[in-house]
Amino acid sequence: HQWGLFARYTQSFERLPQDLFRLAVTAGFVRLQPFDFSSDTVGLAYIYDRPTDPALRNEHGMEFYWRFQLTQLFSVTPDLQVYFTPSKATDDDFSTVFTVRLQLAI
Fold first, then answer.
1. pLDDT confidence of residue 54
2. Of 6, 39, 77, 100, which has the highest C-beta tally within 10 A?
């Protein structure tokens, strides 16, 4: 079993009107072959986003995913993001996003 670390830093210089975040940072770790599932991967990350709109607050949150490699060519990845300070939900201090990604390698 192997562990890995990752980080991503993104900065926008607000040149385009669709730039939603001035700054976005994600950092976390991944676990390869969890519970002896030889092709699966799990990950946990911290999320920090600073919106370009100064009227919005900064976001902080966590993300958890598990990539199930069902066959050599097909995987399913459920993903849960939990935001403790969602920038656009100023009257709410907690927001969750759940997604499922299907990937077919052809």
1. 83
2. 77
Residue 15 in this model has a pLDDT that exceeds 70: no
Span 50-62, average pLDDT:
89
Q: Report the alpha-carbon distance of residue 69 to residue 92 in Å, rounded.
A: 36
Asked if 29 and 39 count as a contact pair (C-beta separation under 8 A), the reply is no
Pair 100, 78: CB distance under 8 Å = yes
Q: Exposed, middle or buried, 67 (CB in 10 Å: 0-12/13-18/19+)?
A: buried
Virtual CA dihedral for 55, 60, 62, 67, nearest 10 degrees? 50
What type of residue is 99? T
- Is 80 exceeded by the pLDDT of residue 103? yes
